[in-house]
């Protein structure tokens, strides 16, 4: 596997095994979609509620014995089709977020062998999504709040070679306010119920603390309003990380660098602290309306977590956006850039997800990390796969040479495992090549796991090799030797 560590881009031609692996992964995606299309053609609706529920929980108990991979909600519901940026990129139904439709996939933590003792008891979940079109901003913001997201990673420029790749969902530099008209959606009504519940809890906490409150406001506020949906976005802080955070900054909210390494020349990485505002009207009638939306009371309430800060008539949710705008569509970036980006993600996820007192139960999992590029599959899948494998290597004892535990858990079907790993036999490998082959097998297995929730994750052979390079670097530098 040949991936450039230095410079801004990896230009080496991927080897045949990477090409073959992507071709086989794509063939498995096609077979699943064709099975669903045949089922719909024969009169089915493409879904199995019980099996979908198992898949949503990450158990995949029926997979390989008749469970359905369906695109019914994304491709057969006309209102939802209009919300897709690309007509051929969508989430499997079982991985969609509960609540209003959004082209986003919830990816459960990487499964771990029961015999292992990770240094962190909770695994990390992810959400991979398309770059939201403007008319889906309210649903996007509602899901960010409902999923308690604190770290949002954007991996695409707004335009590339004259083509629009993403829409800007935060206010531009220069201060002031601007508005984007959007259609009213379920999202704002859902937030009203969320606010009503949270306001009651905040009042209880204020009574316990003697009623003390504090508010900090920026002098030159940058706000993007979505008037018809009651949502607004404010930029609290913006930093250019291409040369590292400013060492002279005295702001307590400024980010401290998790890595002394500078980013490679030509890399553009920015950090923005965003605050989502929802103007709420928590009357009993509106709370009832919100709980009786078409998606159903249970799914709506399931997503309404206790994570909004409330004041009279409004509620807010703070998060950090990392924006890497120098990574080309379908392409790769350098391993140095990827390593530093992953360092930032880990650093901010730990920093931003540490809740204020009183602390939640230790059993509460960390919020998912939300990652999007333009379509939410190539660059997003590459970063998620690399992050999963690097953190697994850091927080678990290193597996024995040629251990297949991870592979068997991520590709439980023996037939699929034999098909996807046809080029990864260790029987005739020289010792020098065995580690490389084992890494390739583990990377293919993790990408196959991601594609159980979102098709086409990690699109190109070069992106697959990039993940292999990240795993090789992590294996060389991280983790206990247990």
From TrEMBL:
Alphabetized SMART domains for the sequence: PTPc, PTPc_motif
Record-annotated Tyrosine specific protein phosphatases domain positions: 342-465
Record-annotated Tyrosine-protein phosphatase domain positions: 78-474
InterPro entries assigned to the protein according to its UniProt record, in alphabetical order: Prot-tyrosine_phosphatase-like (IPR029021), Protein-Tyr_Phosphatase (IPR050348), PTP_cat (IPR000242), Tyr_Pase_AS (IPR016130), Tyr_Pase_cat (IPR003595), Tyr_Pase_dom (IPR000387)
Residue ranges with Low complexity bias: 245-258
Disordered as annotated region, ranges: 33-66, 192-220, 238-267, 282-310
Biased composition (Basic and acidic residues): 33-44
One Pfam family this sequence matches: Y_phosphatase
Biased composition (Polar residues): 209-218, 290-310
A Gene Ontology molecular function term of the record: protein tyrosine phosphatase activity
Superkingdom as given in the UniProt entry: Eukaryota
PANTHER family hit by this protein: RECEPTOR-TYPE TYROSINE-PROTEIN PHOSPHATASE, TYROSINE-PROTEIN PHOSPHATASE 1
Family named by the database record: Belongs to the protein-tyrosine phosphatase family. Non-receptor class subfamily.
Protein name: Protein-tyrosine-phosphatase
Organism name: Tilletia caries (wheat bunt fungus)
